[in-house]
Design a protein that fits this description.
The protein is mainly β. It contains no helices and seven strands. It has a domain of about 70 residues.
């Protein structure tokens, strides 16, 4: 038993383990200034202040509804009208800092991780 890049139908599929670095072509049209990785999700901030996330979304840590798992970066829709300066991933939550100094948090909020009275 080994690692294969082929499905049982003979189609090429994304490998579960990648042994060598590869460029994320889905963000090639953006200048990524910052990236953060959580337990099973990642987030990137671009020079335009846009925020993209991908990976596991069990607790809405991607900030995208209706998606269980995103294989490619998806823009965080709740932040589209906000210019983001920095973002970071926790275990199953994310937080972003706007250029105006406002903090935004989403995902698993147990134990006060989202730093707000309401938790998702």
């Amino acid at each position: 038993m080994g690692i294969s890049n082929r499905s049982n139908k003979g189609e090429d599929v994304e490998p579960k383990i990648r042994f060598y670095p590869r460029m994320l072509t889905s963000l090639k049209d953006h200048i990524v200034l910052e990236i953060s990785c959580g337990h099973s999700h990642s987030i990137a901030v671009t020079s335009e202040g846009k925020t993209f996330s991908w990976g596991n979304n069990d607790n809405n840590q991607l900030g995208v509804e209706g998606v269980d798992f995103a294989e490619r970066p998806i823009e965080v829709k709740g932040l589209r009208s906000i210019s983001i300066k920095s973002a970071s991933c926790g275990y199953e939550h994310s937080i972003a800092l706007s250029v105006d100094g406002e903090l935004y948090s989403w995902g698993q909020g147990e134990g006060g991780l989202l730093a707000s009275k309401t938790q998702s």
